[in-house]
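Colleagues,

For the teaching module next term, I've prepared a clean inverse folding example: a structure given as tokens, and then the sequence designed for it. I'd like students to try predicting residues themselves before seeing the answer, so please don't circulate the second half yet.
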């Protein structure tokens, strides 16, 4: 069964700063399995690089002060659609991200307990979500 994986964990340079978060633990753990890379923020139409964003109450705002909640929700919907299309029941996602964080996410005051928008949407759709530190 395929597994969704945050693309940055696989080495795709899709982070807001144009970098990646390649994680050898993830690559080793999932070696030989069918992987579906996802980047909810790029799927939502954000560029690379882009201003960093974080949760502010029920909204997501970026470093320029723009309300990007709708775009983040769009990216979350596309992640759920990818899971449905490919029949994935497990997603390995980047911790601390406002999209992908499974236990911790970004806020205006730094990292805080909570799920990113895509991680929350996937969990609500019945997909098991784990951070790279929960393998
Ligand atoms: S949205 Fe997710 S996959 Fe994309 S760069 Fe951020 S943490 Fe990585």
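(Answer key — instructors only)
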């Amino acid at each position: 069964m395929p597994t969704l994986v945050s693309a940055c964990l696989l080495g795709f340079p899709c982070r807001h700063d144009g970098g990646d978060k390649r994680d050898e633990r993830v690559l080793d753990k999932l070696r030989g399995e069918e992987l579906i890379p996802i980047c909810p923020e790029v799927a939502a139409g954000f560029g690379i690089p882009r201003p960093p964003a974080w949760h502010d109450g029920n909204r997501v705002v970026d470093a320029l002060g723009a309300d990007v909640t709708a775009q983040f929700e769009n990216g979350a919907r596309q992640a759920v659609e990818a899971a449905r299309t490919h029949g994935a029941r497990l997603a390995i996602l980047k911790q601390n991200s406002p999209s992908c964080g499974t236990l911790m996410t970004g806020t205006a005051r730094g990292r805080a307990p909570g799920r990113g928008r895509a991680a929350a949407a996937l969990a609500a759709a019945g997909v098991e979500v784990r951070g790279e530190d929960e393998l």
